[in-house]
Design brief:
- The chain has 549 residues and is of the alpha/beta class.
- It has three domains: 255 residues, Rossmann fold, CATH 3.40.50; 127 residues, Luciferase, domain 3 (Roll); 112 residues, ANL, C-terminal domain (GMP Synthetase, Chain A, domain 3, 2-Layer Sandwich).
- The protein is 31% helix and 25% strand.
- It contains 17 helices and 27 strands.
- It has a nine-stranded mixed sheet with strand order 2-1-11-10-12-13-14-15-16, sandwiched between helices. Strands 4-3-5-6-7 form a five-stranded parallel sheet. Strands 17, 18, 20, 21 and 22 form a five-stranded antiparallel sheet that branches.
- Helix 4 links the parallel strand 3 and strand 4.
- Helix 1 packs across helix 3, helix 3 crosses helix 4 and helix 8 packs across helix 9.
- It is globular, with a radius of gyration of 23 Å.
Length: 549
């Protein structure tokens, strides 16, 4: 069943129930009433600060946009890019594209002009919807992508080189277009996070999207009464595919435009959220704010919050231990996935497995996993190898990149590039990325293992370990350490702290600086290498970047 059928079902079964709420905390001072007071005014639930739509309105918005695209010549198999910040229009635009039979092409809101141009060209996009934050970047490249015939602007004061989405869509029919879709139809092109160069285009069918929804709902048991707080960017599979579990059962979702701890807890409290997906830095910020007194938990209503889950990166066990000490009733789960496996869930820890925090877990619903050597033979339990996954959510291909596709797909297996090992109970632990492994004096060092150890230090907010060139050892491990606000940490202190590490794993160098992360929470190690490494390493990385292009 194509994913659009779920929206049709929800609109039929729950037409007047709220589907999406957008909250912009930055505009709170423009509103005199509280969220709760506004929610009691049924005749006007929408303000600049808080907006909402029902399932019926969601579906009508999607249908109108689909009909607009069809009148402009967009047809089944075409591609329509989305370049919007999280907002109430994002998901209706996405589903409107799918209802035409075209492919949705979400773009990273951090892309610079040349990256937008690159992704539009690589994906063969025929149209784009963009918001006010991107006018300058889009104007810079709009004459350089001849295939794109339709430039739609969502916002006030439409630029002259585009047409107004808001003005046009209101005149279109709210009736669903008569376009036949199947599980085997192409649905979307997502882009890899680009941590090793320009991103790859990842092609998925409707089958993949539906499997993501079923997997998420199986793992976290969403019901109609659950309310999901969505904070990460919707262009990425991580946020949207977690929301798909709530979407499947017709549950409400809150789109929060901000990541401050007080904003997150206020949204949970006022909107009665039951499920929250966080990145590690956001969870750590909440714990720090509670610890330093910035946040007082008795000022919030949090009893209904049942599940906190984390994905997109390895989770320090110390963080979850501290979280559970503050929120002992919370269920916890972590999910592993890639855009190539339609986001989260191909491996997951599973609710109730808190004793295995640190692991990414076991095969998710409908998935198979294995850990392999260089020849793709399964290694013995406990040995380190490359993680491979197989299931209905595996991508069709890297679009327009047969060589890269063959490198990661074989007999239905997706070879992830992540190094992992399995413990005696069958739980899988990530060790590191293949390309991030440091070879120092003939020893393989796995940065994630060193990072996990360093995060146990109460003064460290974030840390990244990279290899620096060394004339004697080839490479040495260097730790970029971000100290918690208001605290001090010396090199002598951290060196002494590392005495509990095996000698060969101890970083040879400590750099006190911020740790850059992309919007999905991944450490931007290529950027760190460019900043701190010598020319030889940068040249080697540039070769990798060219291969990835």
């Amino acid at each position: 069943m194509p994913i659009t059928e779920i929206l049709n079902k929800n609109a039929d079964f729950y037409p007047n129930d709220v589907s999406l709420v957008e909250i912009n905390p930055k505009l709170e001072n423009q509103v005199r009433m509280t969220w709760r007071e506004y929610s009691l005014i049924e005749s006007n639930p929408n303000t600049a600060y808080r907006k909402e739509i029902t399932w019926s309105e969601f579906n009508k918005k999607a249908n109108r946009f689909a009909n607009l695209l069809l009148t402009r010549g967009i047809k089944k198999g075409d591609k329509v890019a989305i370049l919007l910040m999280n907002c109430l229009e994002w998901l209706p635009v996405y589903f409107g594209i799918l209802k035409t039979g075209a492919l949705a092409v979400p773009l990273n809101y951090r892309y610079e002009a040349d990256e937008i141009k690159y992704c539009l060209s690589l994906s063969d996009s025929d149209a784009i919807v963009f918001g006010p934050e991107f006018i300058g970047r889009v104007e810079e490249i709009c004459h350089k992508v001849p295939r794109v015939k339709l430039w739609l602007y969502a916002g006030e004061d439409c630029p002259t080189f585009a047409e107004s989405y808001d003005n046009l869509v209101g005149y279109c029919s709210s009736k669903a277009p008569d376009i036949k879709l199947t599980d085997d139809d192409d649905a979307a092109i997502y882009f890899s996070s680009g941590t090793t160069g320009f991103p790859k285009a990842i092609l998925h069918k409707h089958r993949s999207l539906m499997h993501a929804a079923r997997t998420e709902q199986d793992h976290h048991m969403q019901t109609k009464d659950d309310i999901f707080l969505c904070i990460p960017p919707l262009y990425h599979t991580g946020a949207k595919m977690h929301w798909f579990g709530s979407f499947l059962v017709g549950g409400k979702a809150i789109l929060l435009k901000g990541i401050k701890p007080e904003w997150i807890l206020k949204a949970v409290s006022e909107e009665k959220c039951t499920i929250v997906w966080l990145l590690v830095p956001w969870a750590q910020d909440i714990l720090d704010a509670i610890e330093n007194g910035t946040i007082k938990l008795d000022e919030y209503e949090l009893e209904q919050w049942r599940l906190m889950h984390i994905g997109a990166q390895p989770v320090p066990p110390s963080l979850i231990k501290k979280w559970k000490s503050i929120f002992p009733k919370h269920q916890y789960d972590t999910n592993y996935g890639l855009s190539e496996s339609i986001g989260p869930g191909c491996v997951h820890l599973g609710i109730g497995n808190d004793h295995k925090v640190g692991a990414i877990g076991k095969a998710g619903f409908g998935w198979e996993v294995k850990i392999c050597d260089m020849e793709h033979n399964t290694v013995a339990q406990g040995e380190i190898g490359e993680l491979a996954v197989k299931g209905p959510g595996v991508m069709t291909e890297y679009y327009h990149d047969e060589k890269a596709t063959k490198e990661v797909l074989e007999d239905g297996w997706l070879y992830t590039g992540d190094m992992a090992q399995e413990d005696e109970d069958g739980f899988i632990y990530l060790v590191d990325r293949k390309k991030d492994v440091i070879i120092s004096g003939g020893e393989n060092l796995y940065p994630v293992q060193i990072e996990d150890f360093l995060r146990k230090n109460d003064k460290i907010n974030d840390v990244a370990v990279i290899g620096l060139p060394d004339s004697r050892l080839g490479e040495i491990a260097a730790a970029i350490v971000q100290v918690k606000d208001g605290m001090t940490l010396t090199e002598e202190e951290i060196t002494e702290f590392c005495l509990d590490l095996p000698r060969y794993k101890r970083p040879h160098k400590f750099i006190f600086a911020d740790v850059p992360r992309n919007p999905t929470g991944k450490i931007e190690k290529p950027l760190l290498r460019r900043i701190y490494c010598g020319e030889s390493v940068v040249a080697q990385q540039n070769e990798i970047n060219q291969e990835d292009k």
